[in-house]
Write a structure and sequence with these properties.
Length: 148
């Protein structure tokens, strides 16, 4: 069994602000990330896939197929976007999901999981996990079998 990880990048802006907390609590909890005008990150997303080598190709995953899926579901919809305003799951009126990297990772993992069988109809490869790096020091991991 092999695990293959492919790295992608996109740039996006966000503001951490929870509608269920007061202005004061938001400022205290999120600090400068609560800046009303937002701020940006160069996000790094690592997608990890698990599978056996396919006999004919000697590969565990067709990277081109994976790229197409990740570009369509993640990079194109998120790149150079304001997550709070332009990505539906964070922009919906009520209840608003705060675009933390936990929630962003969850959304990315859900999107890939939801569309996985369409591009990889066989038993393998399976989506194992995604990791999202918001800064060089903050890495968030979401495992596909641990989410709905
Ligand atoms: Ni931020």
């Amino acid at each position: 069994m092999f695990r293959v990880t492919r790295r992608y990048e996109f740039a996006a802006s966000h503001r951490l602000h929870s509608a269920v907390l007061s202005e004061e609590e938001n400022r205290r909890l999120y600090g400068k990330c609560n800046n009303p005008h937002g701020h940006g990150h160069n996000y790094v997303v690592e997608v990890s896939v698990r599978g056996p080598r396919e006999g004919a190709t000697g590969r565990a995953v067709d990277i081109a197929v994976l790229d197409e899926l990740v570009q369509r579901e993640v990079v194109r919809p998120f790149d150079h976007r304001n997550l709070n305003r332009e990505v539906a799951v964070f922009a919906s009126v009520v209840p608003t999901l705060v675009p933390t990297s936990e929630n962003l990772g969850l959304e990315i993992c859900r999107r890939l999981k939801r569309n996985w069988k369409q591009v990889f109809p066989g038993e393998w490869p399976k989506l194992e996990k995604i990791r999202i790096g918001e800064t060089a020091r903050n890495i968030f991991e979401v495992r596909a079998d641990e989410i709905e």
